[in-house]
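INFO batch 0412 | record 1 of 1 | parsing
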Amino acid sequence: MFYWLIDLSNTVPGLGIFRSFLNVFRYITFRTGGAMVTGALFVFMFGPWIIDHLRLRQGKGQPIRSDGPQSHLVKKGTPTMGGLMILSGLLVSTVLWANPLNPYVWIVLAVTLGFGFVGFYDDYLKVTKQTHTGFAGRVRLLIEAAIALAATYALMRLGREPFSTSLVIPFFKDIVLNFGWFFVLFGAFIMVGAGNAVNLTDGLDGLAIVPVMIAAASFGMIAYLAGNAVFSDYLQINYVAGTGELAVLCGAVLGAGLGFLWFNAPPASIFMGDTGSLALGGMLGSIAVAVKHEIVLAVIGGLFVLEAVSVIVQVASFKLTGKRVFRMAPLHHHFEQKGWTEPQIVIRFWIISVMLALAGLSTLKLR
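INFO prediction complete | emitting tokens
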């Protein structure tokens, strides 16, 4: 919405020095900073009201697994669906600061809100029925897949061939694998996989939101560089016209995430729930597909990958051999059972996320 102030500065006569001020709205970096501040302020201002409203509506709050770590039982009664705080701050700040005519922004927002709605309904069933299972897992995956397939198809139509249907290999500037129409399935897999990987990571106070913010900041930088013809040529990465605006959306996530962390810091006043984790994971996956850095997502979001793989390995091992590889899955519960305290796990996982983000960003130049 503020982006239209650029047109105002060019059409309204007699603005004088005020015209120079309005021109700053054409810069993505300025609007990214504005989106970050707006997202944070929105959550700070309306967060307490949202928490009180959810606590009143949910009563007993999110069900706590009796077979999980015993330390989690003290969290009984904490409301969930805190992702609504993040999504509302993200949506408001993105609408205010991003270019409303940019299709990439709307596609990524559609995936984010679509996955968020799936997570919201799952949280709703868990709270109302006081059970750990929401609606059927296969149905949930099918809905996520439908959203992701539509988004990937739209992204393919926006891009330029053959790169719109290709997978770029990091570290090698000339290796590009053209998947053709199979890229629709690949892109959808990235989005669904990212959404559910973040969902599995969200198990401790503050554990998921900070790695999400780190990944969002990293992909905000990648989107800005990939959407700039000069920078992308210098770094020898794919130039994807228009994706620079996704940096504004990533800034909004960073701000809204900071606001949410204020209330989610131990002991958490509210849990993110599937509402937030599915939405934010889907957002990261869709941005990675849009800017053609799908493999880099697996590096920057390596913590989410490890959490998801730990669950897959645990289930497969138990079904095939009757034995468990980890004391409990996902991975953060394994370390809880080994005696690590919750703050130790959370902070150490944050450190790992920073290191993985630096490794992922290094692929921009090492080609």
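INFO post-check: The first strand starts at residue 166 and ends at 168.
INFO record closed
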